[in-house]
Amino acid sequence: MMQSVTCRKIKNHLMSGVMLACTLAVLIPLGLIFFHILKMGVSSLSLDFFTHVPAPTGEPGGGMANGMFGSALMIAGASLIGLPIGILGAIYLSEFGGSKVSTVIRFAADVLSGTPSIITGMVAYTLLVVPMKGFSGLAGSVALAMIMIPIVLRTTEEQLKMVPGSLREASLALGVPFWRTSLKVTLRSALSGVLTGILLAVARIAGETAPLLFTALGNQFWSKNVLQPMAALPLQIFSFAIAPYEDWHRLAWAGALVLVTVMFALSLTARYFGRMKQAG
Amino acid sequence: MRSCCTHETDRPAAASKKTEPALARKLGGDAVFRYLTTFFAFSILAILALMLYEMTGESLPAIKEFGWKFVGSKDWDAVQGHFGALPYLYGSVVSSVLALLLATPLSIGAALFITEVAPGRLGALVAPLVELLAAIPSVIYGLWGVLVMAPWLQSTVQPFLIEHFGFVPFFEGAPYGVSMLAAIFILMIMVVPIITSITREVLLAVPQSQKEAAIALGATRWETIRVAILPYGKSGILGAAILGLGRAIGETMAVTMVIGNAPNISLSLLSPAYTMPSVIANEFAETTSKLHASALMEIGLILMVVTLVVNALARLLIWSVSRSAQGGAA
């Protein structure tokens, strides 16, 4: 440690430079990805993208309207399954749960959220696609719900725990039954935080591709029946990106731009709700 | 309110009972609510149990048929009914470990820059940006990887490596573009935001007193980082890196799109390879036999167990830091 002061100062500046270089090395590829999505996406996006189904192989034009519709429908389905389990499960953890049981359930949720998303697709396949003898949007919704549940559960629980106990006691002291207190007072005061969690979960599943590969499967045409194979925006981006046609690549870029825009809009809204919570 | 009540009492008792749900009448709203929330909370346990049960059950035919040979053989022939997962295991391990070796130093450097070096406002700008990047779907990384990065690797990086380092076995062969190298790069780009944001949280948990003590002894900023901050956050940073590893092993879409999907076991990073999630993604929807599906299920089971162990380890490490930080504050 008997280095001269100059030497130590030089070393200090050198290492600061290295750290700056690391930050740049982290940000440059990500900046490039954005640049390409914007450049290719904006030039490929047209009104047709939002109103048409993909054109037959080799023909120019077409859009991903069916994929966007399918994604929206499957996300709605996943929310119908996932939100009650996530939110009511979180109420159990924060309001009723004994410590041992809660730890086990939290651990299970952590395991679920750490499981690669393709596994949920395999499970939904064996549970729904095989017995029902066909790929379906419903199976896609179930696979997405399995990803959604642990996210909603953990964020909702965090938010409910932050509600002061005095609020619950005040409500109970007025003679309000416990279940009404939980729903109308505890959940209500944590609402903006809970909404943040829900939006982040929706943003997450909106971009998931792997769980849909062998559940919803994808569809070149309009598919409104949840018991039939269904198109999804991420699936279309995937299959168009690896296809050898220039036109399809352009559609994939346009799809990527739409997907990223929707996801960022969701995260920004979520942040807005999060802020509201802090301000209130 | 009053008229309502009188109305109720006027009615025959049996009719008023009918208007309430039978269970609620018996138990009261609170009990129903309690049972309902308990049911939903335990359904999460049920989902996990069902998942493990299905994965194990469906893998059994392959486990019975091949035993340990499954992970030791590189024979994957759906027509003949021979299945060995070695090329996929090899591809998964090599791509994620090498991606992690590249990503971890970069992430630590970036996290240190954000928390310790950058002027306040710059750090506050970069941090949420990194968080946002961690949320980009993997199919979009894959799209960029296959349409922008792989052609660039093929035309620029790989010919350069072959020309100057072709004598090293890691860089021999032809420039394909889609390759192990492409998978390593795309995984590195994907896990960097995750490791950076967790490392940043770990660094923020280092008590101010630790830094101040080092500064009071006359340490420069780098010396403060080296003697006070890094040793304190060591296990947490390791946890962040392992969490990144878990993410990299399970990553499906982006890798499938750039790795070339050829079951090679080759030292060369330029040759196409295959990973466990990729083979599932490519073959599971069109299996030719029960045994084929079962073999893919077994790969899925291995994948699930590996990520489970890796994630548990990471959480334990991160948790130990946040706990000791809380202990130190109290």
Automatic annotation (TrEMBL), chain A:
GO terms for cellular component: plasma membrane. It comes from the Bacteria. Residues 68-270 form the ABC transmembrane type-1 domain. The chain crosses the membrane at residues 12-38, 68-93, 105-128, 134-153, 185-206, 252-273. It is found in: Cell membrane. Its main location: membrane. It is a multi-pass membrane protein. Gene3D superfamilies: MetI-like (1.10.3720.10). Pfam families: BPD_transp_1. The keyword Plastid does not apply. InterPro entries: MetI-like, MetI-like_sf, Phosphate_PstA, Phosphate_transprt_permease. Keywords: Cell membrane, Membrane, Phosphate transport, Transmembrane, Transmembrane helix, Transport. The keyword Glycoprotein does not apply. GO terms for biological process: phosphate ion transmembrane transport. GO terms for molecular function: phosphate transmembrane transporter activity. Belongs to the binding-protein-dependent transport system permease family. CysTW subfamily. NCBIfam families: 3a0107s02c (TIGR00974). This is Phosphate transport system permease protein PstA. It comes from Geomonas paludis. The gene is pstA.
